[in-house]
Specification:
about 80 residues; mainly alpha; Helix Hairpins; transmembrane helix
Length: about 80
């Protein structure tokens, strides 16, 4: 599932919203893998809470940048931003 999400992230680069959604799936799969690893090793899961907090911050920042780009350019196509810049 992790590799499938990475492949989708690399191949689906037309809309920024889809890229953010794929990035969230990648982060969620990595979180589940690390959580299972921490549980098997009987380690503290405080690191996982910090990682989860960083995932939420990354999602909020991505969506706020997306809203700013849509307000300024009226679409979320990645190729239109590259041409304008």
């Amino acid at each position: 599932m992790f590799m499938f999400s990475l492949i989708l992230f690399c191949l689906n680069m037309s809309k920024i919203l889809l890229m953010l959604l794929n990035l969230e799936v990648v982060m969620l799969m990595l979180y589940m893998y690390l959580l299972n690893l921490m549980m098997m090793m009987s380690k503290s899961i405080y690191f996982m809470l910090i990682y989860l907090m960083m995932m939420v911050c990354e999602g909020v920042l991505g969506l706020s940048i997306l809203v700013c780009l849509i307000r300024s350019h009226s679409n979320d196509y990645l190729k239109s931003f590259i041409i304008i810049m």
